[in-house]
Design goal:
methyltransferase (chains A, B), 7-stranded mixed β-sheet, alpha/beta, metal-binding (chains A, B), homodimer, SAM-dependent_MTases_sf (chains A, B), 7 strands, 11 helices
């Protein structure tokens, strides 16, 4: 047992609740969390197979950020569990919920707790758990339900080969895994597999037998490259902003070449195969999520704010905080200029998956 | 079950790790925590009576602040539990520790987690639990060991009567419970009893039968009034600073009259009676702590910093942040001027108690 961490944490979503915060700029994620309410309900009704539910039901959200989406997800889970045990057990009133909110140590837990505090009355005991979810965070068999929404596409690190100018996997001229460069794609894919395995193996220890793990994450339609999807086009645009700024001498070319997003959007089939291969869990369901978000009202400014909320800390850490405003001003201009071609790819080759895994009874 | 909170939290210890932080200014508390290592060890060896220790041992520190003292205390507890089960059980290696760090929602958990992160390798899984300990924070029977050090002398609020100019308990001309004014002392004492009861009753629900609750807190020698002790003299001095500043027109007289410290130092006998009366716990031990802190090297600046770390947020919240520096500059001057008379009372009529309570098996 060793939960001590020696490596520095990656960058979190933007903290606080100001105009550039994740709190104010996670509408897409929110619409997805809301769209999954009924799916969570069904998962718990049909797939949760706890031998003997004790008086405490422990839930963890992995990659919770600062709210509010994590609170909505948790609320949905608790309502579904209450509904299930209301039907099946007479002693449902004695069931108490403990919810663990996990994110990196440098996540803004103060803001998370402030938001939680304002979010009352609540039906659960709350705790924040700092640290990487690519390792153990909880004692053995201490959780009944795990949840992770829009967190596992973040890699624990950018694969070092893609930044190595001497490697065949050097990702020259790009800041992400476009999909066009096989060696780069393999380096990213390999890091992703490794990260998914460390995540699943740690959760396998922490979840009780019969417990559930719900994962919500983006995936690519099979045969589609990331740069052919809306999100890939967005990353390409961000990369071109950094290139332009390097050409203007605002940032150094070397800094740009040493920057790659630690994000991997897996092809759906590859993800499914990876989940099937893990012996600790059974894949109960993989569904595509249809959200109710109205994309007609989207604006360039809105999408810029959304991207900024999730990449600002990363850019700040690499290039310095003084250039962040300029990056996203330029991004906003470029996005407006290319609006129709980008909107054209939106939602076509890109999807959000709802995955239910159940912890096998045999180890 | 309802852990939602509707009332605002009191003021925490000063956050961060700067020169005025609690992190840098809790040396007295630290010397006490270190002095109790052997007492903790004995308590766990002789008094911890768990029926069947499962694979997880859950510890909570109530009023943890931002470290480092809470880490030292937790380390002592874990080492003692390991020692006990090393001797008694063959399967001690499978015992995993989960530690819950509790403090008010507005405690600086970001700093706590940063300090925790730097404090590796560590032998436990960690979680932060925001919220008042005068109510439930954990599911029933989910903790094996509770710890609270220098937290329970803080009241959940200043009793309203002492600020009410029409009440016989109006505490005119003082900012704390000096002991000279019977009605004031009764109002403070009554609030303290109420707070201790809500604390103990909540912990009684959360601790398993046979689990231990260790409390470290200051108390007065019987027959001594607070203003006759070193800490009372210090509070009187702080009050006189505020009075002087009101006379100079820097702050308003009304503001000073509306300010009383929510701190109560109980007479030792009264505290013992209160603990004996609570039916959920057995009082296993109440000992006076002898610390190794060298008081000869104390300076006025040092004591000023110590007082500032624990009262700054309170003063800021009541009078505004702009006057804080001036208050403690004046305090430092007055303390230097009265140094020998204050040092004379030091450690004479004031003590720190080490209390062990065990959770009764009968409810």
């Amino acid at each position: 047992m060793a939960s001590g961490q020696s490596s520095p944490d990656p960058y979190p979503m933007s903290g606080g609740d100001g105009p550039n915060s994740y709190f104010q700029n996670s509408v897409h994620q929110k619409s997805i969390v809301e769209a999954t309410k009924e799916m969570i309900n069904e998962a718990i009704r049909d797939k949760l197979a706890l031998n003997s539910p004790s008086n405490a039901f422990n839930i963890a959200d992995f990659g919770c950020s600062v709210g509010p989406n994590t609170f909505i997800a948790v609320q949905n889970i608790i309502e579904a569990v209450e509904l299930k045990y209301h039907g099946n057990h007479q002693n449902h009133q004695s069931l108490e919920f403990q919810v663990f909110f996990n994110d990196h140590t440098n996540n803004d837990f103060n803001t998370l707790f402030k938001n939680l505090h304002h979010n009352h009355p609540r039906k659960f005991f709350a705790a924040g758990v700092p640290g990487t979810f690519h390792g153990r965070l909880f004692p053995k068999s201490s959780l009944h339900f795990g949840h992770s929404s829009f967190a596992l596409q973040w890699l624990s690190k950018t694969p070092s080969e893609v930044l190595d100018t001497k490697s065949p996997a050097w990702n020259k001229g790009s800041i992400h895994c476009t999909g066009f460069h096989t060696e780069v794609a393999e380096a990213y894919s390999s890091q992703f597999k490794n990260d998914m395995e460390t995540f699943l193996n740690a959760r396998a220890q922490e979840l009780v037998n019969g417990g559930l793990l719900v994962i919500i994450m983006p995936a690519l339609q099979d045969g589609v490259l990331l740069s052919q999807s809306s999100i890939g086009v967005t990353f390409d645009l961000l990369g071109s902003c950094l290139q332009n700024m390097a050409q203007s001498g605002i940032i150094s070319q070397e800094k740009v070449e040493a920057f790659n997003l630690p994000i991997y959007i897996s092809p759906a089939k590859g993800l499914e195969a990876l989940l099937q291969r893990n012996g600790f869990f059974s894949v109960e369901k993989i569904d595509r999520i249809t959200s109710n978000m109205n994309t007609n009202t989207l604006t360039a400014q809105f999408l810029t704010s959304q991207l900024r909320a999730v990449t600002e800390e990363l850019i700040k850490g690499h290039f310095g905080s003084e250039i962040v405003d300029a990056v996203f001003e330029l991004f906003n201009i470029k996005l407006s200029e290319n609006w129709f071609s980008i909107m054209d790819t939106k939602n076509q080759k890109f999807m959000d998956l709802f995955i239910i895994l159940s912890r096998n009874f045999s180890d």
